[in-house]
Amino acid sequence: MPNYPLLLRPVSKEIIWGGSRLKDDYGKTAPFEKIAESWELTVRPDEKNIIANGKYAGMTLERFIASDRARIMGTNGAKYDRFPLLIKFIDAADKLSIQVHPDNDYAIAKEGELGKTEMWYIMDCEPGAKLVYGLKEDCTAEDFAQAVKDNRTEELLNFVPVQKGEVYFIPAGQVHAIGAGILIAEIQQNSNVTYRVYDYNRPGADGKPRQLHTEKAIDVVQVRSEDEIDALRFSQKKPEGNYEVLASCDYFTTRKYVTDSDNVAVFHAHKTSFLSLLILEAEDAVLSNGVEEFHLRKGDSYFLPAGTGEYIITGKSEFLTTCIN
Predict the structure, then answer these.
(1) CA gap 203, 164 in Å, rounded
(2) What CATH number has the domain bearing residue 174?
(3) Helix/strand/coil percentages in the chain, nearest 5
(4) How far apart are CA 46 and CA 118, in angstroms?
(5) Are residues 24 and 113 located together in one domain of the fold?
(6) How many CA atoms lie within 13 Å of 21's alpha carbon, on the beta-carbon side?
(7) 96 and 121, same structural domain?
(8) What are the angstrom distances between the C-alpha of 18 and each of 63, 92, 122, 188, 202?
């Protein structure tokens, strides 16, 4: 069992609405011009991270985990029959389609996949940028279903102006969409099931309208109040420490740390779960496990196996950690 953080090589995605910031500002590479999504933690049949450092360099993360799954995943992680998380950077130069994700029961029955509850952390945004976060006040699921059938979807959407550093928790069933000019870190269940409700009548890369999934979307949409969403976002006990808990739901807990010359971050990969480490900012920042030091770069993603103990980050940094509940 290695006692070192595994640096992961991301999987880049080209989608029509993508931008150039992940290349220009975060050093991501791809054989295409613009990167819409950079999958920083993924263990899926056709999208797998490759380990980029140390003894296991060149091995897929999937193969590494399979070598000692129970210990590497931790007691909480190993209870799932598939890898439970998918973590991405998303650069939306243009607005995304209006969409909704199913819960576990519906997704497993209809798609053979997990459902999708997710969280967005706004890394940066252009002035005036907005996203779609649920439906307008007093709008019911029935109102939404009728609007979709009448091609009036936009009339019922709740458009929200965003600012850097904000958090948006999106439980399964909530209508949502990222707007143009927004850079996001997304933490989600390991699922790629998306029901596209409306796409502004745009053509896809092939010049044809992209597929919509209106019937399934109407099946799964749920309307929740802000209080109900916050209750889901913090359904686990919030621990205390030198960090901010961004979300702690049934599936994951994500914390944000900020370090500088006067403040270091100390955190642990406990036996209960592996830890994802996502570096949002780094300047002379160093990660230490007590044996080795690792110089951090903006945009790095590390996988810390469960039970590997204490880690310390010094220097100037901003980062997210995510574990399984």
Answers:
(1) 30
(2) 2.60.120.10
(3) 20, 40, 40
(4) 21
(5) yes
(6) 23
(7) yes
(8) 30, 5, 16, 19, 14
Report pLDDT for 200: 86
Confidence (pLDDT) at 211:
84
Q: CA-CA distance, 120 to 246, in Å (whole number)?
A: 10
State the residue range of the domain holding 136. Answer: 6-233
Residue 73 amino acid letter: M
Q: How many domains does the chain have?
A: 2
User: Tens of pLDDT along 25-79?
Assistant: 999 999 999 999 999 999 999 899 999 999 999 999 999 999 999 999 999 999 9
pLDDT of residue 209: 78
* CB 75 within 8 Å of CB 272: yes
Residue 296 corresponds to which tokens in the numbers above?
């951090």
C-alpha distances (whole Å) from 138 to each of 148, 156, 216 are 17, 10, 22
Choose the catalytic residue: 196, 210, 224, 297.
196
Q: Residue 80 pLDDT more than 90?
A: yes
Q: CB of 320 within 8 A of CB of 121?
A: yes
Residues 156 and 17 in one domain: yes
Number of H helices, E strands in the chain: 7, 22
Give, rounded to a whole angstrom, the gap between the first and last alpha carbons of the chain.
22
pTM score, two decimals?
0.95
Q: Are residues 141 and 223 in the same domain?
A: yes
- Is residue 210 among the annotated active site residues? no
